[in-house]
Amino acid sequence: MQALVEQLKSAVASTRATDIRAAFAADGDRFGKFSAAFDDLLMDYSKCAVNDEIMALLERLAAEGGVAEKRDQMVSGAPINFTEGRSVLHTALRNRSNRPVMVDGRDVMPDVNGVLSAMGVFADAIRSGALRGATGKPITDVVNIGIGGSDLGPVMATLALAPFHDGPRLHFVSNVDGAHVADTLKVLSAETTLFIVASKTFTTIETMTNAQTARRFIAEALGEAAVRHHFAAVSTALSKVADFGIEEDRVFGFWDWVGGRYSIWSAIGLPLMIAIGPEDFGRFLDGAHAMDRHFETAPFRENLPMLLGLLGYYQRNVLGYPSRAILPYDQRLSRFPAYLQQLDMESNGKSVTIDGKPVEGRSGPIVWGEPGTNGQHAFYQLIHQGTDIIPAEFLIARRGFEPDLAHQHRLLIANCLAQSQALLKGRTLEEARAQLDRQGMDATRADHIAPHRVFTGNRPSITFMHDQLTPFALGRLIALYEHRVFVEGVLFRINSFDQWGVELGKELATGLLPVVEGKAGTEGLDSSTAGLVASLRQ
Ligand SMILES: O=P(O)(O)OC[C@H]1O[C@H](O)[C@H](O)[C@@H](O)[C@@H]1O
């Protein structure tokens, strides 16, 4: 593979691939060649530094890296998360075809479908008002207590699907900072609030601490006996849930072959289902399943996750770009960049290959972003004129949900297209100078100012366009990015499915708590940490 990476580097130099502007000038049909569509979802990557030679090399890279083989292993239940000895089967959670998926010789689909229908019954009971609080009042507010994968997916998707939200109000508490739970509880009435404690392991300190605070909130307002009416749980650790005192018929399980950051499709999606209803939640799963089938069957140049993964790998490891910006032109996708940050950075932020050797070259990039147009007035400056090249990924819907405000949607679209166009075109010194001349600036000052108004251009971007952000479209979009992360992980030759990098901080926090509480001394600590503790005690 390394030889191919070197070949790609020389192809970039010999074909001057990074002069994207020149490539557009030379080929009137560049968009036709370097775009692909899956139903209404269009992916335009013509504004990336690619050409036929590079695409052919990337296709070879995918083949040599064994991406298709690894994909088939993943979806068929092979334990590809070998550091934890687990299968990786988020695709089974949305396997709407119901074809059997075997783990340890057993089809997991009956369990998957069983939990899904139990979730549906519970969600419907809350939504209809049949399931009530301890004092007989219907539930008006649902609070999800979880963090990381047990929080980001439900938060992101609930915001994204606001036009479909016809269930009770949803709230999300994640941070161990008491401010989070306190501010949330302040506006809630115990009688009409249901808490969902969401934790794959049911040991995460933030979630367990917030759950205890919520438990006290109910017990103090309504008495200890009321607690069971106001709690439900989602976890793989069913015995730990029982210890917390949550009734069995309000516990929704999932399995160790579902990674936290891939768990929105499992019972972790319960808050979303309560918000939008089981039918729309089903459509959300359908969208992801459609993308799974596409990933498994579409040829390379039509395969969106393959293309996105290969382009991501190329931009990181061949062109050496350090980060990527996720820029949804959709206010309801405001948490999508944060969601992708966990998905991508927790999956591919690794330095050791599957053989236990240091990664050659680079692994996953820094992923960040905010919705447009807001970002335009904040950090886009650096994307346009900074010293790093940051590939941008734009996302826009052809239609919004506000027919009365269609003119605002058109303005949103124009801004989205203008940004990718500006990144591509840039502005030369001559153009900048001519513009200042036209404005009547005197020649000496214009010479002085013009360089500051130069944009190099040739900055890469990908634009995704879909019809509308429906549950189906959101499911499809998330699955697209999951598979892109998978493809890149295979090419980086890492295990994308563990997260040992988050452990050390947790262990140290446990050790530091007694020190912070003043029950243990600072002996043996580095002088910085000891100094910070001393400052705390002043
Ligand atoms: O769902 P839980 O077991 O509570 O885990 C919540 C989160 O915490 C961990 O530290 C991991 O880094 C995440 O991948 C996980 O999603």
Automatic annotation (TrEMBL):
PROSITE patterns reported for this sequence: P_GLUCOSE_ISOMERASE_1, P_GLUCOSE_ISOMERASE_2, P_GLUCOSE_ISOMERASE_3
Source organism, top-level taxon: Bacteria
Location(s) in or outside the cell: Cytoplasm
Reaction catalysed by this enzyme: alpha-D-glucose 6-phosphate = beta-D-fructose 6-phosphate
Any one of the GO CC terms: cytosol
EC annotation from Swiss-Prot or TrEMBL: 5.3.1.9
Alphabetized InterPro entries for the sequence: G6P_Isomerase (IPR001672), G6P_Isomerase_C (IPR023096), Phosphoglucose_isomerase_CS (IPR018189), SIS_dom_sf (IPR046348), SIS_PGI_1 (IPR035476), SIS_PGI_2 (IPR035482)
Keyword annotations of the record: Cytoplasm, Gluconeogenesis, Glycolysis, Isomerase
Pfam family, one: PGI
Gene Ontology terms describing biological process: gluconeogenesis; glucose 6-phosphate metabolic process; glycolytic process
Active site per UniProt: 346, 377, 506
Annotated metabolic or biological route of this protein: Carbohydrate degradation; glycolysis; D-glyceraldehyde 3-phosphate and glycerone phosphate from D-glucose: step 2/4; Carbohydrate biosynthesis; gluconeogenesis
Family, similarity comment: Belongs to the GPI family.
Its job: Catalyzes the reversible isomerization of glucose-6-phosphate to fructose-6-phosphate.
Protein's name according to its UniProt entry: Glucose-6-phosphate isomerase
Organism listed in the record: Gellertiella hungarica
